[in-house]
Amino acid sequence: MASGGLQLLGFVLAFLGWIGIIISTAMPQWKMASYAGDNIVTAQALYEGLWMSCAMQSTGQIQCKVYDSLLKLESSLQATRALMVAAILLGLVALFVAVTGMKCMKCMEDDQVKKMRMAVFGGVIFLIAGLAALVATSWYGNRVARAFYDPFTPVNTRFEFGSALFIGWAAASLAMLGGAFLCCSCPRRETSYPPTRGYPKNAPSTGKDYV
């Protein structure tokens, strides 16, 4: 029962992490304009994401523009896109594989060892998906931080971390943690010992000696 609860907890955490990766990928707030300068007009907030850039006016109106050409984007942004999409697809595959290996499902009940191995395999895929998302968000965040502290970057073009980055970091951590819990349901090999043989009992002595 304990391993079944750990397996269920791992699946729930990994599923929440996968949903968070999807939300983070779709959000435009990967980086937001910094207002650290003295002469910066704060009438609007500027955001940039993987797919579009947005401007929110002080009235609350939001205007977004999808990036025109894929080939005009930076190679690092394209790589971040690819990693996040790969994490989503891997998470989808891991979801179906892990569901097959869950103890609460009726599938593959005749072979419990293969069933548990499917859950472990799903956990491994969740780990890879979470690692891909973690690499993508950390790489993007590193680029934002380096541009912010670069003295040659104009003050009015500096950006800070957006909320999508924090969601991506949390989601990647949940996916990896859930995958690790699923991997803990690996079936253990039980060592089989040969049955112990009883020693024959000595026949009671009759007190007669045979020559």
From TrEMBL:
PROSITE patterns cross-referenced by the UniProt entry: CLAUDIN
Location(s), subcellular: Cell junction, Tight junction; Cell membrane
GO cellular component: bicellular tight junction; plasma membrane
InterPro entries assigned: Claudin (IPR006187), Claudin1 (IPR003548), Claudin_CS (IPR017974), PMP22/EMP/MP20/Claudin (IPR004031)
GO molecular function: structural molecule activity
Entry-linked Pfam families: PMP22_Claudin
Superkingdom: Eukaryota
Membrane topology: Multi-pass membrane protein
Keywords noted in UniProt: Cell junction, Cell membrane, Membrane, Tight junction, Transmembrane, Transmembrane helix
Chain ranges passing through the membrane: 7-27, 79-99, 119-141, 161-184
Function: Claudins function as major constituents of the tight junction complexes that regulate the permeability of epithelia.
Family: Belongs to the claudin family.
Name listed for the protein in its UniProt record: Claudin
Organism, as annotated: Fregetta grallaria
